[in-house]
Design goal:
The complex is a heterotrimer.
Chain A (H helix, E strand, L loop, with lengths): L4 H6 L7 H7 L1 H30 L3 H4 L14 H7 L8 H33 L5 H10 L5 H15 L5 H26 L2 H9 L4 H30 L2 H6 L8 H6 L9 H21 L4 H5 L7
Chain B lengths: L14 H19 L22 E8 L2 H17 L3 E8 L4 H11 L6 E5 L3 H6 L7 H7 L7 H8 E2 L12 E2 L2 E13 H4 L7 H14 L4 E4 L8 H12 L19 H14 L12 H9 L3 E7 L18 H7 E4 L9 E8 L7 H14 L2 H9 L7 H4 L2 H4 L5 H7 L3 E2 L7 H16 L5 H18 L9
Parallel strand pairs in B: 1-2, 1-3, 7-8, 10-11
Antiparallel strand pairs in B: 3-10, 4-5, 6-8, 6-9, 6-10
Chain C lengths: L4 H4 L4 H5 L7 H36 L18 H8 L1 H33 L5 H13 L2 H12 L5 H8 L11 H30 L2 H9 L4 H29 L3 H6 L11 H10 L4 H31 L1
Classes of the chains: A mainly alpha, B alpha/beta, C mainly alpha.
Organism (chain C): Nonomuraea harbinensis
Pfam family, one (chain C): BPD_transp_1
InterPro entries (chain C): MetI-like, Sugar_ABC_transporter
Chain lengths: 303, 472, 316
């Protein structure tokens, strides 16, 4: 089975530590370890906390020296500015968020629809030069986006996909398909092929067997894979900035980057926009946290 | 936990087939786009064609800053009176992405804007590639060229660009002024007194004294970043003031011209006299960081673009006062000090017409330009927060009273100098930016940096711009 | 996700397998149909969006084509390649990238493993801790870059403000020639240490308990147990994590674009950033394509070598 965070969390019992404790006067060492972990956690989380704090500060306090940690006026104006334009009406940022939802959602769905069946086929059937094909599929992800963006740009120019959501969806899907295939192949490998064989003996076709018996077992894996695809397309910046330009297409990362480089930087707004933008991904990630490990390891971790 | 797998003799479409397909696709598409194209700019009609009565959106593209929003509001309020079926949309991109965003669309031969707002130096690249319309005949028929300082028309519209301060009557025009701009000196009246320094040397010594007298406040704040044209404009300004030249346009020489004695003196002043008076870590500052330093009361004297200075008067962003008047009691705005010359950098942008826009939109764009350049509209634009270009508007009370730094602009118009206006502009400015930035941050000595700029820029000019090789 | 599957069953494969299966040849046929139907859409997308652009770039890399200037593209043979390989500017960026990749990946491997090790020794709150540590990894590089730029600002940044309260001087995080690259490494480390941690945690949890039990019966020292049991078992996994991170770091662009835009001077310009400038400032498309192809080649060759080494390690 693929290792999940919860398993990682629960499998090693405390008794493992007892002999140690006996030998090293464990309590002191344990305290040291907890202290170290706390320090590391504070260091890793401080920027996030600071971002949240900045998002509720007045702009005058944002620049205060020495920095104000606690005694500042709390305001929710920045969050309002994220969604409402200064003259009323919808802000361009909120339009960008909406574009992000459409682009990330559609490209994730497309990558899943194309990737899951392919993963199943690669897992179940002896495909010619399977290893080569799989490495080739993975290697398409090695390309630096800045490099790919040049020919993609030329290609899109020919077919009129520049500055369209469809263009972004296709390129994101293409970047996510290799990952989906690799990760899902790991999950499919874990589902015994015998299930399908048994179903086929009962008169189902191979496709029906896949559809009725294997697919339901794969759902958790699909969800985890989809979250990784979602994170990629949600956060992607390079293609977005070079392939889109109009407000009705541009996704959130370039829109947030556009908040600086004017005449004054409204850091409160930047922080609020970042918080709003990060939330959906964090929520999704939390929901499928059990399968995240399998995700980052492309299904390579198995016991 | 491995399970035996069913084995069949299967294969998916082999890579060979895929490669062959791709190769065929490649061949056909390359053939399709490889056709030569006319490199000269297409001509706009001399008179404005009949305008449509259907609803039409006239799109601009600019970078995201207050004048962009001011333009959209102004145009929708005023232009709609004449053309109720037209909506004006000013699309904005991040400043750092401005050139790339416009020119990638030009490269695509399909633009989602009708009026690109090009920086004066972008014109050469756009004209050479045939991206914008030649509006010479249109201007002759519809625009009163006598109403402008000739250099403004030359800077925002003409290519090849004329010598400083002159306009070639016979040269082709590709744009009209939209927003004028130059640097203003921003000084703290409460710290250095009401009278601004008159020479560059005096300015440096006043800043030095102010920094020594006021701990925590640095003497100077100016653009040093390596993005956009930040550090390059700073060096060009000092270079001009100290009598240097960026290049010799006739012989296309940079090496030996830029890095002559005056050029080296300017770089020395910038790095060894001005930089020590700036805040620590200010080596990546651009417009907004300089504004923040002023608003936070951390700089005695600062330099910034006029069109970007409006935010300084906003009490919500400032610690200098709780009202606009209180802030104005502390901040003074003056034209740049002079030294060997009185040159100031030319900023601002012109309006141009995309060659890839539908004809109806191009006609509307021309009509907008004609409308925009009228005397009373220019005054209204001034009152709305814009910086006009017509001399009568520049001298009108509507403009001069609209903001405390507007007088600075009017005074600076005859003193302006632009950068090289050549198709290779983007690369030239990048070379200068990175090297000046390196000198300012101690990564190169001033002399080394200036010589590198001259050498590298010269090689870009010499290589010509016709082809896509080189460019490293 | 549930509505995604019916789409796939529209594939032609369904037709082949719609009839009830008979054992023997016909089932194999329908299997073949299925395999083709299931893998070809994905492969077609990859061909169109990855392989085809790459081939196009390969073609352009032998020409002097420019995306904006148009005109006929003339073949220049290996001219672009030799120009790149001989260019001192490129060597400089390669060195910067190398320092960055080695620095960042080393730092996050050490840190990530340490955190994973500490977490794996906790009994309570491991799930919560792990989830919290993962947050940086989920953020967009844009958000990360912008916000660190704000925090690292020498004048108004919170980091220098805290250093100031401790009586330490201001550090020019983003404008010093050396510190800027270090800052880049630190920010990347902040964002990607969780990735290594997650994989290391998976490896640590997968170490069979009985090995530890056996060792504790033998009264083996803690360090001995770590060195002889934990490390050898986690090592291969960690090496895969290092591979992924190194590939990602090698093509870093967005963080540089936002945090330093390559400054001061060009001291934080990575190879990717340089390609961007060649491609979009000068529109030297031919050169940029060759540059990109070279980068892809480097990644693929190094990856192959590394994977071979990894397999050898596994066999031993």
């Amino acid at each position: 089975m693929a290792v999940s965070v919860d398993e990682a969390v629960s499998t090693r019992p405390a008794r493992d530590r007892t002999p140690l404790a006996r030998r090293f006067g464990g309590r002191g060492r344990s305290v040291l370890e907890v202290a170290l972990l706390t320090v590391l956690a504070v260091v890793m989380l401080f920027p996030v906390l600071w971002m949240i704090e900045t998002s509720i500060k007045e702009n005058r306090d944002v620049y205060a020296i020495p920095a104000k940690f606690f005694d500042f006026q709390v305001t929710l104006d920045h969050f309002k500015d994220v969604f409402v334009a200064s003259g009323g009406g919808r802000s361009t940022l909120s339009a960008a968020f909406l574009n992000s939802v459409v682009v990330a959602g559609a490209s994730t769905a497309l990558a899943t629809v194309l990737g899951v069946p392919a993963a199943w086929a690669y897992s179940r059937f002896a495909v010619k030069a399977k290893k080569d094909q799989l490495f080739f599929i993975l290697s398409t992800r090695f390309m630096p986006p800045v490099v790919v963006v040049i020919p993609i740009f030329l290609m899109y120019r020919q077919v009129g996909l520049i500055d369209t959501k469809l263009g972004l969806i296709l390129i994101y899907a293409a970047f996510n398909v290799p990952f989906t295939i690799w990760m899902m192949k790991g999950f499919v490998d874990e589902v015994p092929a015998e299930y399908e064989d048994a179903a086929m003996l009962d008169g189902y076709t191979r496709l029906q067997a896949f559809w009725r018996f294997t697919l339901p077992l794969l759902l958790p894996g699909i969800a985890a894979t989809a979250v990784f695809a979602l994170i990629f397309s949600w956060n992607e910046f390079v293609f977005a900035i070079f392939l889109t330009s109009s407000d009705s297409v541009r996704t959130a990362p370039p829109a947030i980057a556009g908040l600086i480089g004017g005449t004054t930087v409204d850091w409160g707004l930047v922080a609020a926009a970042s918080v709003v933008f990060a939330l959906p991904v964090l929520v999704f990630a939390y929901l499928v946290r059990k399968h995240l490990v399998a995700g980052v390891t492309l299904g390579a971790v198995r016991r | 936990m491995r399970y035996p797998k069913r084995r069949g003799r299967l294969s998916v479409p082999g890579r060979k087939v895929g490669l062959a397909t791709a190769a065929i696709l490649l061949a056909t598409t390359v053939a399709a786009c490889g056709g030569g194209q006319n490199d000269s700019a297409p001509k706009a009609p001399a008179t404005i064609p009949e305008l449509t009565k259907d609803p039409l959106t006239l799109s601009f593209i600019w970078f995201d800053w207050p004048p962009a929003h001011a333009l959209e509001d102004f145009a929708n309020a005023e232009y709609a009176k004449e053309r109720p079926n037209v909506t004006v949309k000013v699309k904005t991109v991040p400043n750092a992405n401005w050139h790339d965003a416009m020119f990638t669309q030009f490269a695509a031969h399909k633009t989602d804007f009708d009026i690109p707002i090009l920086d004066s130096q972008h014109i050469g690249e756009a004209v050479t590639n045939g991206n914008i319309l030649d509006i010479t005949d249109f201007v002759r028929q519809n625009i009163d060229v006598e109403a402008y300082n000739p250099y403004l028309l030359a800077a925002y519209g003409q290519f090849p660009q004329a010598e400083t301060g002159k306009r070639d009557e016979n040269a082709s025009l590709y744009g009209l002024p939209l927003l004028g701009d130059t640097w203003t000196m921003i000084y703290r009246k409460d710290l250095i007194g009401d009278k601004p320094p008159q020479t560059w040397d005096e300015m440096i010594s006043v800043a030095g004294k102010c920094q020594a007298d006021n701990p925590g406040v640095s003497g100077l704040a100016f653009h040093q970043a390596n993005g956009s044209d930040a550090a390059a404009v700073t060096y060009n300004t000092v270079n001009g003031v100290y009598g240097g030249n960026l290049w010799n346009p006739k012989t296309r020489k940079i090496d030996g011209v830029l890095n002559d004695a005056a050029g080296h003196e300017a770089m020395d002043v910038l790095v060894n006299k001005m930089k020590p008076l700036t805040a620590k870590g200010s080596g990546n500052w651009f417009i907004d960081e300089v504004n923040a330093a002023v608003a936070q009361g951390k700089a005695c004297i600062a330099f910034n673009w006029i069109a970007a200075s409006g935010g300084l008067l906003d009490p919500k962003q400032s610690t200098l006062g709780t009202t606009r008047e209180e802030i104005l009691g502390k901040l003074g705005f003056a034209a740049l000090p002079s030294q060997k010359t009185n040159l100031v950098p030319l900023g601002g942008m012109g309006m141009h017409v995309s060659a890839y826009s539908p004809e109806a939109n191009q006609a509307e764009a021309l009509n907008f330009m004609k409308w925009f350049e009228q005397a009373d509209i220019q005054k209204k634009w001034a009152a709305a927060g814009g910086v006009p270009s017509r001399t009568d508007a520049l001298e009108s009370p509507e403009f001069l009273n609209a903001a405390p730094f507007n007088q600075v602009y009017t005074d600076s118009v005859p003193r302006m100098r632009d950068m090289w206006n050549v198709p290779e502009y983007a690369r030239l400015v990048d070379i200068e930016n990175t090297n000046v930035n390196a000198a300012l941050n101690g990564a190169k000595t001033p002399k080394e940096a200036l010589d590198d700029i001259a050498k590298e820029q010269q090689s870009v000019l010499d290589a010509g711009s016709g082809k896509g090789g080189g460019g490293l | 996700m549930s509505d995604s599957a019916p789409l796939t069953s529209d594939q032609p494969g369904q037709v082949a397998s719609a009839t009830p299966p008979a054992p023997g040849r016909s089932r194999r046929l329908s299997d073949r149909g299925l395999a083709v139907a299931f893998t070809s859409p994905a492969l077609l997308l990859l061909l169109a969006m990855s392989v085809f652009p790459l081939l196009w770039a390969l073609y352009l890399s032998f020409t002097d084509y420019s995306a904006t200037r148009g005109g006929q593209a003339d073949f220049v043979g290996f001219g672009n390649y030799t120009a790149i390989l001989a260019s001192e500017q490129v060597h400089l960026r390669a060195l910067t990238t190398l320092i960055y990749v080695v620095g960042a990946v080393t730092l996050q491997t050490v840190l990530g493993f340490a955190i994973a090790y500490l977490i794996s020794r906790r009994t309570h709150g491991r799930g919560l801790l792990t989830t919290l540590f993962l947050v940086p990894m989920m953020l967009s590089p844009v958000v990360v870059g912008l916000f660190w730029r704000f925090m690292l600002d020498a004048q108004f940044g919170v980091i220098n403000s805290m250093l100031g309260s401790l009586g330490l001087g201001q550090v020019e995080w983003l404008t010093g020639q050396r510190t800027a690259l270090i800052s880049l490494i630190l920010v990347d480390t902040w964002q990607w240490t969780p990735f290594i941690m997650l994989i290391a945690l998976a490896g640590l949890t997968a170490v069979p308990k009985y090995l530890y039990e056996a060792a504790s019966i033998d009264r083996a020292s803690e360090w001995f147990r770590f060195r002889t049991i934990t490390l050898p078992l986690v090592w291969p996994l960690l090496l895969i994590a290092v591979l992924f991170r190194a590939i990602e770091a090698f093509r870093l662009f967005d963080l540089v674009y936002i945090l330093t835009s390559g400054g001061p001077g060009v001291s934080t310009e990575t190879l990717s950033f340089h390609v961007y400038k060649v491609a979009f400032l000068g529109f030297n498309t031919g050169t940029a394509s060759a540059y990109g192809i070279l980068m892809v080649l480097v990644v693929i060759v190094l990856t192959q070598l590394y994977l071979r080494y990894l397999n050898k390690l596994k066999e031993d």
